Structures are given as structure tokens and as C-alpha cells.
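Hey team,

Filing this mostly as a record. A colleague (T.K.) asked me to run one chain through the structure pipeline before their review meeting, and I want the input and output archived in the tracker in case anyone asks later how it was produced. No errors, nothing strange. Just documentation.

Input sequence:
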Amino acid sequence: MSELEKIDDYRWRVPKSGQMLVEGIIYGNGKIIEQIKSERVIEQVRNVACLPGIVRASLAMPDAHWGYGFPIGGVAAMDEDGGVVSPGGVGYDINCGCRLLATAIDANDLKGRVAALTSTIFQRIPSGVGSRGDVHLSGAQLKRLLKSGARWAVESGFGVESDLEHTEDGGTLPVGDVYALSDRALKRGTDQIGTLGSGNHFVELQVIDKVFDEEAAQAYGLYEGQLTVMIHSGSRGLGYQVCDDSLKSMAREAVRARIELPDRQLACAPIDSKAATDYFSAMNAAANFAWCNRQVMMHRVREALEDYFRASSASLRLRLVYDVCHNIAKREEHLVEGRLRRLVVHRKGATRAFGAGRKEVPSRYRQVGQPVLIPGDMGRASYVLAANARAMEETFGSTCHGAGRVMSRKAALKLKSGAKVREELEKRGISVQCAGLKTLSEEMPEAYKDVTDVVDSVHGAGIARRVVRMRPLGVIKG
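Output structure:
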């Protein structure tokens, strides 16, 4: 704890020292900070604070844990004038994100039927390592998709226009040149649209069991007892390949630009360089792929619900509440020391959280702030938060993104078998479908922080506030 200075019950300072250009700030209550101490998060916060052009502070959210370059849960904003962009500040799963589908279905009406409904959805969504979907794309189709993102899916019959209105950035970021992607990246994306993948990705049937903020819940169309479906996935093999390819070119560019790095995993390039321009194009294309992927999966969920209940989407009132992006670097405008500045905000394992009145927030939600979706683990809870104005002042409109790991996958595999995890979840009334039992072991609830502690930390810090809590009913894992 000597490395940290306590600011208040939810904020801790990493003092500026050595090559650090700014201080570090870590968010979390006492319990969370004890967990963060056990990893190399403080070291990584210090390292990020050394990057050229960093503004205000190197930040870590309460779900932070060790990652490649940046900590997972790290946030850093770089001035466009003299700053850098770093793939280590985005990660391998570009635009790994969440979307929440609301229904008019009373969860009480599903008693005795959750397992059957979970199985129905599982049959519609390919899951697991290397899973392939039934949306087969030609090279020309894939390139159009990479430029238009979720809009490609909607225009191809996988959704409705209002889905785009309730997706961060409309489900599309600008792509200058799809040829910035390698042939291998393009090949890996050809048949993975509409697939879940593995690891911590999931589709989950949930019930809202507690409402904290009636005004925001009403604006979001959420209420106690309501059945919701959360989808968590990313850019699959295509995004992984984009990151892998970019790290090599960024490492060369950092040497050419004479950027001294405290950790070579923070390979980066000046924002105005060709290497950075190519990375932005490739990263945005991967982000668009991820939005399209989640859009198609949500369409499959809608179809499964329609078939299971023998009713239309309109009568079931199936509606996208919001889709948030976790791993990205974006050009944004933020007020810093009384001046509006153009920044590149890296959010790695962190969620955009824009407060009330911000034009990027859908009009339906603008008076209460952007919805923030915080998934937990398979056995506990997930949350919907609302972004507060304080996030705009402190964290460049950012907050946590989930529970955050406290145990490596290797350690989890030694602790408990997947079969045992399934048995324990089903005893708690949670139906499980998975492509392999190994993932259940790796993703057991004990491998994660309690998301309630994470949410309490950002709520206490005032950067986001609790709106509703959802309890898992049925889980689909890769």
C-alpha cells in the first residue's frame, strides 16, 4: 500500500515518479484495492503514465487486473498533438462488448422452462474455439461489412433500424482502407459472423431482480421481474489478427520515432504517423466486425424467442436497450482544464460512460445518461448502470466493464472441473449450455471478483450509478 496514496474511500493515487508524465489513479474500495495489489496493475499504471502525450492521469477501473501492456481495466487519453496510439491499450479482442435485449416476458412464466429455452438459443448460435457461422461472405461482402459494421447486418435482414440507434456509435466507426488488414485477418473473418467464440464470451438469460434508480430504469425500459438477454462477444479471430499484426509494425515505429518505452508491450506510434493511420483503419474495421457479429447473434436470439413462444418480436416487445464497446481507442472531444481538446481515448477492459446531455447518447436516454452494461460471472449478478457527469470530468467518460479476473485460467482448471461447476450452477437454478466443459472450469464464478464490489466502487466514486441488477437464469458458453 506504500505505493498508493489514499484520496478517498474509492480513489487511490499512484504518485508521479521516474519517467511518469502524469500521476496514476486507481478506482476501488478497500477490498478491491487489496485484490489489485496482488497483481502488477500498479506497475502497469506507472508504465502507461510514461507514454508521450498522455493527458491528466493513467487510470485503472476497479475491475483492473494484469494485461498485455495496459492493465485490463486501464484508461488513458492521449492528445492528438504529440500523443501516441498503442495496440496494448486496446487488446487482442477489439470491441469485445456487451448488448442487452429487453423483452416483455415475465421471468416467473419461465419456471420449469429455462433449460429448454436456453437449449433453443444454444442451437442457433455456434459457440466455442474456431466456431463457424452460417453467414458465409465473399471477399467483397466482407469488405463492405468491415466498412459499415452493424448497418451491414440490418440491411441484410439481421435486425431493425432502431437497433443501430441504440448501439454505441451506431455500430460503425470510420474505416479509411480495409486493405490495412492482412490477408490472414480477412481470411479469419470470412465465416465467423454470428458466432460466440470461447473464453468469457456468453449469451445469458437474466431476470431483473432489483431496481435502484426508477427514473433511469423507466428511461431504459427496464423493470423488476423482466426477462432480459445479455450477449458478450467480440471480433473473434479477425480482431486478434489485427492486434497481432499491428504490434509488429508499432514496435518498428516506436524505434523509428525514438520513443523510450518502459515495457515493449506498450509498442506505439505517433498519432499522425502512417503506422497509426493504418492501425486506426484496421482496428475500426475489427470493431465494425464485432458490432455486426453481436447484431447477427441478437437476431438469432430474437428468432429463437419467437419460435419458442410462437409469437412475433413486436408482441414480445424484443428491443435492444444498448450495445457498449469495451476494447477500443477512439478520437473524442473532452474538456480538460477548461479547454475542449481532441484526444485519443484508450479503453481496455473499460466502458464508455457518457453523461446526460452528451450528443452521442441516444435521444431516449439523453436526460439520464448513457446505459452502461456490466456483466458479472455465471453464478452471481450483472448490472445496468447510468453514466454520471462526474465521469466526463474525471475519467474521460469511462467506467468499469465487468467483474475482472482474480484467478488465472490455469489456476481455475486446477481448482475445479467443468462438470463440478455445471453441477453447482444447476443446483442454484442456473441452466448451462456449453461447447466444452473446460471453459466452464476456466470461467467459474470463483475466478472473478464479485461484480457487486466493482459496481459499488464506481457508484461510490460517482462516475456511474446503479440502475438495475440482473440475476442469471440460463447461460450459454463457448
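Quick notes for T.K.: DSSP finds 16 helices and 19 strands in the chain. The longest helix spans residues 274-309.
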